[in-house]
Design a protein that fits this description.
Layout lengths: L45 H25 L4
């Protein structure tokens, strides 16, 4: 029993003894698909800009807290 999928090598035409293929008798390449079936939507930049602004505000707030704490104003 063969572990490879497909027909048994003895049943396939064009194979030589041992399973090799004679020169010029190789099968064509497999079919390929290229491109998309439909255009992909362009993702929105809104959520990423809002996230960056929120992180910036948080960083400025934490830095301000430690600066005021270092100056003993808080």
């Amino acid at each position: 029993m063969s572990s490879a999928p497909g027909p048994e090598p003895e049943d396939v035409p064009g194979l030589e003894t041992g399973g090799s293929v004679p020169p010029g008798d190789t099968p064509p390449d497999a079919g390929q698909t290229s491109g998309l079936s439909h255009p992909q939507p362009i993702p929105s930049r809104g959520p990423s800009i809002i996230t960056l602004i929120a992180i910036g505000i948080l960083v400025v707030g934490v830095a301000g807290f430690f600066i005021l704490r270092a100056l003993d104003l808080l």
